[in-house]
């Protein structure tokens, strides 16, 4: 008996017979406990998010640690490379010196060869003179032709002196040749060893440079990973903020629901009392009810529907909910050209978030309680908004202006609907619930 009265009252307040928002009515206790359940869910999601944020922080710290060690490796490689480069310069200078030495020796060789050539001429001349006079045999003739013993001695001495001089020339000749050969082979050995050292250093330098390039690449990848982790954490933090804000707006919604139910109970009691007093009166629950047309927006605003939900913006649907271009579109896009295109609240509710996000641009989140079922609506890419968190808004009330802010290409409203509180990637298709 009592239950049916309550049901009637709930049906009367929650929209008069629209195909949209055909949500089954619930008892007061049920609706409040459902709201509280949602609030607990948000709380759980927040603690999950916070542990994700901590993980992201750990990851960033770890990546930074890796970067530090790669940087010290790079420093070591830089020092090694500069050391190798110095040594290469030194070896190259030495090679130049040695080449100069070789050039000098070549000059000396030329001089010596000239000298040897001259000596050869001298020796040949002498040999020719021996030949002319009969060569070695003539020495004997010279000795035999001596007129006395002292003459013989004189002649023998002269012959010995001439022979000794020839011997000395030949010895000097030999020594010069040997010395030069030795010097040349030593210098050539030096040059070969310098060239080998230079080649080794150049190989080492090449290896070090390759190692450095690899480390540079690793550092770049670590840096971009850290950048990504940072961005991921910013996303998580934004999600956490939204959840925290929702906790507050749902708390407010619960309070409003409790107040509404108290009013209903009072009205039901009054009606029952009236029914008792006036025995047979005509009783029709014509509650003209909250059409709440505080939507003082421009003429372009869509007409407010009588159901729980109304269309959030004028214009054409340019993109529906679902897969598109290989990704998933979590809302419905409504586009309308012109300035000052109004965006309105899709249902009565409490604003939980009104901020700027890099992806959504100027965006507003509203928590609704429709028969104890929490819904959340999101209005993205607005050029501006005129509500603030905690503010109660009514269906059709202007909340902002259509725009092209955030990750958007062309002026449109990106509208999302959630059954329950907002949670990452859990929006549902609004078609069939919201009259779009
Ligand atoms: Zn969209």
Give structural notes:
- This protein is rod-shaped.
- The relative contact order is 0.12.
- The protein folds into two domains: 33-281, Helix Hairpins (Orthogonal Bundle), CATH 1.10.287; 291-436, Glucose Permease (Domain IIA) (Distorted Sandwich).
- Residues 1-22 and 282-299 have low confidence and may be disordered.
- Strand 2 and strand 3 form a beta hairpin.
- It contains four helices and twelve strands; from the N terminus they run H-H-H-H-E-E-E-E-E-E-E-E-E-E-E-E.
- The protein starts with a helix and ends in a 17-residue tail after the last strand.
- Helix content is 58%, strand content 14%.
- The protein has 436 residues and is an alpha+beta fold.
- Helix 3 packs antiparallel against helix 4.
- Zinc ion is lined by residues 319, 329, 331, 333, 414.
Keywords:
coiled coil, alpha+beta, single chain, 3-stranded antiparallel β-sheet, Helix Hairpins, Glucose Permease (Domain IIA), binds zinc ion, Dup_hybrid_motif, 436 residues
What gyration radius follows from the Cα positions, in whole Å? 53 Å
Instruction: Report the portion of residues in β strands.
Output: 5-15%
The count of helical stretches stands at: 4
Spatial order of the strands forming the largest sheet: 1-4-12-8-7-6-10
Structural class: alpha+beta
Task: Please outline the helices and strands.
Elements: H1 2-13, H2 28-132, H3 136-144, H4 149-277, E1 316-319, E2 322-324, E3 327-329, E4 332-335, E5 342-344, E6 349-357, E7 361-370, E8 373-382, E9 384-385, E10 392-393, E11 398-401, E12 413-419
Antiparallel strand pairs: 1-4, 2-3, 4-12, 5-11, 6-7, 6-10, 7-8, 8-12, 9-11
Helix pairs in contact: 2-4, 3-4
